[in-house]
C-alpha cells in the first residue's frame, strides 16, 4: 500500500511539473522588465494561435462529417437528373 501511495505521489508531481512548465519559463526575469513582458506575450500568442487552429480544425472535421451524407444524396440526385435529361434529349 505504501508503494502504491508513493508511486501515485511521484506520478502526480511529475505531471504537475510538466503541466506548468510554460509558466516557469518567465520566472527568471524581473516582473517589470521588458524581457518578462515579451516572454509572457509570446506564451499568450502561442496559446492563442494553437487554440484558434484547433477550433478551425474541429469545425472543418465536424462539417465534413455532417455534410458527407448530404453530398452523397446530392450526387445521386444529379445522376438521376442527368439520366432524365439524356432520355428527353435522345427521344
Task: Describe what this molecule looks like in 3D.
The chain has one domain (27-90). It has helices at 2-19, 21-24, 34-90. The longest helix is centred in the last third of the chain and has 57 residues, at 34-90. With 91 residues, the chain is an all-alpha fold. The radius of gyration is 28 Å and the shape is elongated. The chain is built from three helices and no strands. The chain is 87% helix and 0% strand.
In short, what is this structure?
This protein has helices at 2-19, 21-24, 34-90. With 91 residues, it is mostly helical.
What are its keywords?
single chain, 91 residues, mainly alpha, 87% helix, 0% strand
* Contiguous runs where pLDDT drops below 50 for at least 5 residues: 16-22
Count of helices?
3
Radius of gyration: 28 Å
Mean pLDDT: 79
The backbone outline, from C-alpha atoms, is elongated
The largest pleated sheet is described as: none
N-to-C CA distance: 87 Å
Helix-residue proportion: over 70%
**Derived structural class:** mainly alpha
SSE pattern: HHH
Strand segment tally? 0
Kindly give the count of domains.
1
Strand content: under 5%
Amino acid at each position: 500500500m505504501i508503494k502504491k501511495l508513493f508511486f501515485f505521489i511521484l506520478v502526480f508531481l511529475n505531471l504537475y511539473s510538466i503541466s506548468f512548465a510554460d509558466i516557469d519559463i518567465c520566472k527568471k526575469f524581473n516582473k517589470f522588465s521588458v524581457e518578462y513582458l515579451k516572454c509572457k506575450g509570446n506564451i499568450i500568442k502561442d496559446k492563442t494561435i494553437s487554440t484558434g487552429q484547433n477550433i478551425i480544425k474541429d469545425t472543418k472535421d465536424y462539417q465534413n462529417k455532417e455534410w458527407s451524407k448530404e453530398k452523397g444524396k446530392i450526387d445521386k440526385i444529379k445522376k438521376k437528373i442527368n439520366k432524365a435529361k439524356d432520355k428527353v434529349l435522345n427521344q
